[in-house]
Structure formats: structure tokens, C-alpha cells
Amino acid sequence: GNSVTQMEGPVTLSEEAFLTINCTYTATGYPSLFWYVQYPGEGLQLLLKATKADDKGSNKGFEATYRKETTSFHLEKGSVQVSDSAVYFCALINQAGTALIFGKGTTLSVSS
Amino acid sequence: EAGVTQSPTHLIKTRGQQATLRCSPISGHTSVYWYQQALGLGLQFLLWYDEGEERNRGNFPPRFSGRQFPNYSSELNVNALELEDSALYLCASTPVYSNQPQHFGDGTRLSIL
């Protein structure tokens, strides 16, 4: 079946540090891949997406590349800010679009 | 454009009671999804409605049910509440069922005493 595995947190960084959150997936066919972010007390916000192999999604300085050969979709940001502190979820949806499958989430804490 | 709206924001119930949660999708979106975010269990898919029909459900007991109205808004009903039903319930919508991004509301926090 479909599944998403992302690195355990929490991830604690200083402002302006480089961020990587690893995400790998198992899926049949060609899923679409997403990163969502959840700020405290809020719902999920779409951060970026990629719908086919080698696509790079990017938004607000965050990037992730759909790597079919390694079944990965790692999230990166060159210089994190305190305001990036949140929980990040990697997710996939299959071609039928029935439901999102989420990873367990990674908590990012950035200090000044 | 208004986003996905959910009500109430918080709901407190006791064991055995019934809870009703509501969701209004983004205008023009016909598919509504419900997810449960329970502490330690992550985000789990509950139900998917499209054009008024239940299209898919996750691995939850039948006391979790819902419906979608002609205006595409949706209700999630949870009967015979148990302590472990305490969670944040998130609703999402898309324009027809697809692999496009789902847009989420801020959720309803259900607390069972």
C-alpha cells in the first residue's frame, strides 16, 4: 500500500541555518507529492507540490524535488527564520485522488 | 476567496454523547475530505465525499459517519463518543476529485471528558 516516511523530530536550528527534512514514499503508479505546514493552533497549509518525476516544487524559500529513482521528496531551505517554526508534513496522493497519505510530521524549532 | 471554514472551533463532549462537526468548502469545490489528527497518531483519512456521495472511507468504525449537502458543505457525525476520539478534525476540499492539492480548514478541536 501507499505510505510516507519522514524523519523524526524535533529538529532544532539556529536562525539562518540550512534545513533538510527527509521524506521517502512507497506508492504504486505515479503519485503527486506535497509538503504541508501546520503552525500552532492552525490547520494545514500547502507549502509546495510536485506532480511528476524531477519536478521541483518551491515556495517561500523552501524547495523539494520529486526523485522517482530514490522515491524521495526531501524538503530544504537555505536559511531558516524563527517564523518557520512549525510542524511539516510530507504527503502523497495517488492518481485516483482518493485521499492524502501523510507522514507523521516533523517539528521544526528555530531560535534566534 | 473564502477558504475552507469549519465549525465549531472547539467542542467539548462526554463519553457516549454524539458530536456533529461542520465544514464549508471553498466555493466551486465539490469534493470534501475529513481527517483526524490525534495525538501520537498523526493525520489519518476518515471520509471523502464528492457530489453528495461517500466515495471512500478510512479505517474507522461505523460510528464515524457524515454526509454532503447539495451546496457541497459537509457534516461529520461521531456517535457513542469515546475518550480516544479526542482530536483535531480537519476538513479539506478540492475542485472535483483529483490529485490536486487539498485546501484545509483550521479544524475543530473535539475534547471528550
What does the model show?
The complex is a heterodimer of chains A (112) and B (113). With 112 residues, chain A is mainly β. Chain A is built from no helices and twelve strands. Chain A has strands at residues 3-6, 11-14, 19-21, 23-26, 32-38, 44-50, 56-59, 62-65, 75-77, 86-93, 100-102, 106-111. In chain A, strands 2, 5, 6, 10, 11 and 12 form a six-stranded mixed sheet that branches. In chain A, a hairpin with a 6-residue loop joins strand 10 and strand 11 (100-102). The N and C termini of chain A lie far apart (41 Å). The model of chain A has no long low-confidence stretch (mean pLDDT 93). Chain B is an all-beta fold. Chain B contains no helices and eleven strands. Chain B has strands spanning 5-7, 10-13, 19-24, 31-38, 42-50, 53-57, 64-68, 74-78, 87-94, 103-104, 108-112. Chains A and B meet through strand 5, strand 6 and strand 11 of A and strand 5, strand 9 and strand 10 of B.
Largest interface: A-B, 25 and 26 residues
Largest pleated sheet of chain A? 6 strands, mixed
Q: Tally the helices of chain B: what do you get?
A: 0
Weakly predicted, low-confidence segments of chain A: none
> CA-to-CA gap between the ends of chain A?
41 Å
Q: Poorly predicted ranges of chain B (pLDDT <50, ≥5 residues)? A: none
- Proportion of strand residues of chain B: over 45%
> What is the radius of gyration of chain A computed over CA atoms, rounded to a whole number of angstroms?
13 Å
Order of helices and strands of chain A: EEEEEEEEEEEE
Mean pLDDT of chain B: 93
Distance between the termini of chain B: 37 Å
Q: How confident overall, as mean pLDDT of chain A?
A: 93
The number of helical runs of chain A is: 0
Quantity of strands of chain B, as a count: 11
